Amino acid sequence: MPALSSSAPPRTKRPPRVPIAPAGSETRFDRRLGEILHHATEVFCNKGYEGASMRDLSRATGMSLAGLYHYFGSKERLLYLIQKDTFTTIVERLKARLEGVADPEQRIRVFVQNHLEYFMAHQSGLKVLSHEDEALKNGFASELAAIKRQYYRICVGLMDNLKRERRVEFNSRTAVMSLFGMINWIYTWYNPRVDGTAEELGQEMAEIFLSGVMPRQRFEKARLQARPK
């Protein structure tokens, strides 16, 4: 489950689109937009999407209510931008980190590490994405669904490659959904004093997952390594 769902408003007059700067050219506008999305995420996290009002978002972001309506049009568009920014960022980071990594097990470890590092640094965002999965409608949902499918398919590809290279059999979809089940709910229990850093937790969770999909091979490898020389 690439963590969550999305959607767009009915076909009424759309608010002015928030411009997107070219990649690699962050501007003061980009930074301000990032701040607005951060504060909006906190509001949705604390009050829930249904419970949050545009007035709440105006107070939290420091924008006038009129300005918020002018640039974003609705709280639905803000939620859409939060989700789009999150999924686009995590997919781009994952692709960059997978470059040059050939070992199929290591590639899955990279996937787990990338996911955990991002969401452990943005736990409010993960809660919003998990709880407001069905809040968006229509066009917004379609656009985000395409990004989520891409994320899901990358993970399925990693599973298929692992099966092919290690000659193991398991259902790739079941494995992917189980993995997302492990890593999407850390915000409900993660305690840095007990559970360690993102790197430590990522290594442990990846090992637990891999041991589950390849138990015989791993047992045999451990047995051979334990043999007296």
Topology, element by element:
Elements: H1 28-47, H2 54-61, H3 65-72, H4 75-98, H5 104-121, H6 123-131, H7 138-166, H8 172-183, H9 192-195, H10 198-213, H11 215-226
Helix pairs in contact: 1-2, 1-4, 1-6, 4-5, 4-7, 5-7, 5-10, 7-8
Descriptive report:
The chain contains eleven helices and no strands. The chain is mainly α. The protein has a single domain, classed as Tetracycline Repressor, domain 2 (Orthogonal Bundle), CATH 1.10.357.
Estimated share of beta-strand residues: under 5%
Domain tally: 1
Largest sheet: none
So what's the overall shape? elongated
Structural class by helix and strand composition: mainly alpha
Catalogue the unreliable spans: 3-25
Q: Supply the CATH architecture.
A: Orthogonal Bundle
First and last CA, distance: 45 Å
CATH topology: Tetracycline Repressor, domain 2
The number of distinct β-strands equals: 0
> How do the SSEs run, as a string of H and E?
HHHHHHHHHHH
Radius of gyration, taken over Cα atoms and rounded to an integer in Å? 20 Å
Q: Would you identify the CATH H-level superfamily?
A: Tetracycline Repressor, domain 2
Total of DSSP H or I helical runs spanning 4+ residues: 11
Helical coverage, percent range: 55-70%
Question: Which assembly state applies to the chains in this document?
Answer: single chain
Which whole number gives the mean pLDDT?
Answer: 83
CATH uppermost class: Mainly Alpha
